[in-house]
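Can anyone check this?
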Amino acid sequence: MELARQGRSVDAVIADLEAKRRDDVKWADGRTFGMVYNGGPSVHEVAERAARLYLHENALNTKAFPSLGQIQSEVVGWTANLLHGPDGVAGFLTSGGTESILCAVLAARERGHAERGITEPEIVLAESAHAAFHKGAHLFGLKVRKTRVQDDWTADVDAMAKEVGPNTVLVVGSAPQYPQGVVDPIPAIAELAASVDANCHVDACMGGFVLPFVEMLGREVPPWDFRVEGVHSISADVHKLGYAPKGVSVILHRSKALRKYQTFVFDGWLGGFYASPNLQGTRSGLPMAAAWAVMQHLGIDGYLELTRQTLENADRMRAGIAAIDGIQVLGDGRYHLVALAADQSVEPPIDIFALGDALLARGWFHDRQGPPDTLHSTVSNSNTGVIERYLADLKECVREVRGQVADDRSTNYATLE
């Protein structure tokens, strides 16, 4: 493919882009369970207006753009307050949950080397932990020690304890974990990490902008944030249920002394002093400013209302699934993640991917995951007003696909061609 020699009009270029979007999921109509989170018209407006202000700004150098330094500091501070960060808590904004997790892995490796002399670092995590931890281990040269989950899908701390040793630099817990939406036993995981002076990271990319408001609404939430002694770092995505546009996440460390291990500082070239707080160099100011604007626009009360609607949607979905013969929800998920699977006690069992294909034909998009074969939903305010229609279609699709087997068994969560 070659770039055309002559440019084209603005209208022609935009028309082509609009045409390309025709096969994309229609997230604005509430039929997509994940990927994009719709906070409503006013949230869109404030984000888009902020985005236009910062479309071209570069956060690489906050001396040139001091407003972006202020924006980062304030978003980090607001998030730290939600997660009960102690005095001295410090962090940075990143491009998303994967980058936040990579920074946590890097910081753990660097601290283990600097303070304990570890040259063959290891990470201990449950099989439910996000794939980004494995990516971080691959990139930064850590050995992964992966353990099973318990019958309730939470991390098995006893199994993890058998893998922790003198080379462990990081022990991971999730709040909640993505596949089944349950919160790991964070206090026990933090205690396990402390037993070898390793970092404990809590992956709250999915829960960081949900669990604080769930707790404020009076629902029970197990201990998971900086109130747990021994939690060193937490990742929380503003672009998920924080309702900011992609891509912006927060990585928090209990202290600046811990945060320093993720930064890169260098002055051995002809360009002068260089420092990078995360994995990027040049960073767009757009998502940072949009996140700031959305958080300011919503405030605590706005987030409480969005979270209330999200929980009602997820509760209604779980109850509706339980009433349909042949399918079930995996795990005791109480929040916004729903894992739909076949009830293996019902004969013949429903092929869950055939069910997913039937739902997709009616316009309902789920991520496919496994093992076991599951249709995954990240429920949010985006799905308000469509749950009853979804459950009616789900019931019809279960009846329609009974005895069918899907040819496509893929579970892609990827950007691969």
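Reply from J.R.: I decoded it. The first helix runs from residue 10 to 20.
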